[in-house]
From TrEMBL:
It holds the Pfam family HATPase_c. Residues 462-686 form the Histidine kinase domain. PANTHER family: HISTIDINE KINASE 1, TWO-COMPONENT HISTIDINE KINASE. The lineage of its organism: Bacteria, Pseudomonadati, Bacteroidota, Cytophagia, Cytophagales. This is histidine kinase. It comes from the Bacteria. Keywords: Coiled coil, Kinase, Membrane, Transferase, Transmembrane, Transmembrane helix, Two-component regulatory system.
Amino acid sequence: MKYFILFILSVWVVRLGHTQNKSFTTFHDYLIAASNPVSLKNTEGSISPGALHVLIAAVLRKQNWDEPIDIQNTKQIVQMAAKQKLQIGLAMTYFILGRHYSYEKEDSLAYYYLVKAEKIFTKNKDTTGMLYCYRQLRLTVWEEIYTDLTKQYFNKLITLSTKSSNPIDKYFYYVSVVSADPYFEKQPSESQLSDAFNKAIEMIDKYPYCESMRRDIYHNYHQGYVNLNKYDKALTVALQTIQHPKIKANYRDYQNLGRAYIRVKKYDDAIVVLEKANKEIKTYAPTNLRRQRNINKLLKTAYYNVGNWEAGVKADEEYDRLNEIIFESDRSLAMFHLKEKYSFTEKEAELKRISLEKQVAESRNKLLKAQYDAEKREATLRNLALENQANESKTKLLQSQIEVQKKERILQMAESQKQLLFGGLLVALGLIGTILFISIKLRKTNTKLLELQQGRDKFYTIIAHDLRSPMNNLNDMGVLLHHLISEGKKQELDKVIQQIERMRQKNQLLLNNLFEWGKSQYFTQGVDEPQQKMDVVPLFQELYQNYFPFAEAKKITLTTELPAHLWLTTAPGGLMMVVRNLLDNALKNTPAEGTITLRIGPPSVANHESSFKPTLIVADTGNGIAPDQLRYLQQVFAGKIKPEVGIHGLGLGMILIHHFVQKQKARLTIESEVGKGTCFKLILEA
């Protein structure tokens, strides 16, 4: 049995290696693999073709996401791909090197590697790889000198991308239209730019492994409006790039935005984003001196235009310093790259020589094999001469065969008994697994029932806590009313009536909270109130209209500071319940001539996030909250302690607010000072 299991494992390992080696046949395969995080290990030593494909995909991923790549490791991958005769792997590494040198403005080396990659992709009829090379060559070739060559690559790109049935290949046509490429005979209109951009975004959303293209299409969309001299729209696209939730803004994005601000003469805004770009590039790409030089060139323009001569001179001096460094390094790099290019050619010649030597060795082996076959035929003839002697031993051989057959039948019977035993074991294991599964399901069901029972008990406790005070007050009010009516004390009777009205409002809020509790199932695990995207400003205005008469009756000023619109994805019932409880608490604790304000504060920006979070503020000038009660509430809403009914006067309203905040993943902060008032801030997700 153990030999059978070993045989199955061996077949599985062989098939896995075969599948891994065969799964990378086109540029598209690498693009899919590069969409998943892959660890890039050291390329020293000998590795399998499958592992080499994974290494190439890892380098491609880093380059697609604007991360620096190790050039020495990449060149080692080129040598290993050439040694293992992996043509598609060799083409991919040539393309990666060509695109790297294109980004570094080393056009001669970029052209050298991109042309080699394009030839291999063309030979394999890999349209996606061909289009990537055409696009990069279109951007790399110096069009002021080689106009015909640049236009030739542009025409190849447009022809192939429009004819191809591959949806990924269509992207290269969209990006050419979006960028308003000047080689179009008729420049695209704004509507054509917008239509091509929407189609490209739709393609990226449909195929998640194309997510790295999103930044590229936004940059080209921005450049398209620049080419059409629509600088206001170019600025809008640059801002959309920075604010997009799926694009992590980097120094390139901030540089584009700064350049867009300068074109529309918003120099102060340009200075802010360009300084941020300058700071980030020194952190994440300190060796990219050319882009640092360009950022300082834009900075000095912005500073001079706002009249900040000191900062402008400083940026100008930095620009000149970088220019000198680049000029000195260009001369040494030119010699180094030329030397590197010829060194690479020599290595290729050496690999070809080794390949020819292998072919000669194979031919020699074939010749030796032919000689061996001839000797084998002679031996066969000698064996035929000995067959007569073998015939004499046939009888003995037949007898031994009969004995072997008997032994084989015994072995077969033993094997069948083993199979029956193995089947019984499998059935027993299946029964044990079924029992374990049912036991786990029962345990989960019991846990859920226990949670429901605890929620029910908590519900009853809070109802009893919040109903006890109103019922005691009603009992006292009955006796007091009877006494005041019999004594004819009208003034005191009016005060009691006002107190009854306040009790009515409080009981009404309590009933609303109880209804909201039962309807929303806040204490049931895994059950959330349905959310919807809506404009919440009308809800707040409705609450203001409802509470204004009560505030006016208490001689309290109720004001609002609300925008025209505020779209949020939230549970509207829960949000209304929170604001209603906060307003009721403010009315209850604010004396006459006081002020209550309901407003939407400035958006809060979380750390490492680019999304804005609006803040709902309910502030009053009332009695304030006692320090010990304030500390308790702050710890509750900070998630440090669990809220308990009756602790520090905590009632149903605050319990509901706490659970709304937990369910919606919002934050609630409380600021209060005794005698001066209280401010609740609810920070929501946009």
